[in-house]
Design brief:
single chain, alpha/beta, eight-stranded mixed beta sheet, globular
Amino acid sequence: MDEVILQVDRLKTEFKTEDNTVMVLDGVTFQVKAGETLGIVGESGCGKSVTALSIMGLLPHPQAEVISGSIVYRGEDLVAMSPLSRYALRGNRISMIFQDPMTSLNPVHTIGQQIREVLELHQKTLSRQEQTQAILDMLDKVGIPSAEQIIQSYPHQLSGGMRQRVMIAMALACRPDVLICDEPTTALDVTVQAQILSLMKELQQETGMAIIFITHDLGVIAEMCDEVVVMYAGRTVECADVMCLFDHAIHPYTQGLLRAMSSFQLGAKQRLETIEGTVPSLSDMPEGCRFHPRCPHKTEKCEVELPKNTWIKETHLVQCHHWKRGYCL
């Protein structure tokens, strides 16, 4: 049986504002298996990045906090863990690649200094010479040529693709069990994106790490992922293995996302399908199902009652009152 290395269960995260408190995540549920890739997909503002920050323990304090639910890593609940223990895990056993490498890398330190800092924090037994060799080996592993020269360079001296490779090297320096990737290829051109995705697959096969891949690109999800979580307005609306999701999407929101994908079958003058409406404001969530204002199949029940998690199969979860109806199958 595949080992579940990280399990998120009914996670709720709140943000405090000057006027009130808003629930950004409301019952997010999924699990990640060793050696597999879980994709998290959804529109901007649905809570993908907040989910990653909640797992990493990097929520801005005291403005945001996890108020309930669990994040269990190898049998330990990270939510209940002390800050010091969480600090020891972060960047060591659980690492993250952030969305924009230009703002994530420190502009006043060289590439070598920034990767060395990770090793100094989590690999204290290494000598300075061993650290340098480990840095060069990791840069070589992620496909960066002339590593001896690169470690003396500053972030602004590198291209976007090279900076992203440095971020991957930094995240993998301690060979983590779980790697969280928050839209790591968004700002890259198509060719570099393909190279980065291929690199991550190779490193995963070599190390056996689990990957959580956050993106809004369903094409990347299809290429990279084994399991997929679809999020909407802070909730998990559907979760399934990638083939099942693309062939038998159940939730109307997931179906809408798939219909909105571009296709070579579209004629020259055909318009892409869209999902009418917009994601609701965090401070003004609708009653009942959060998708019902945009759903073409809503009923009165959808407007007043929040749907619960329903397991269609052992590996297929959905939040929809009417998933049995013909339009959902």
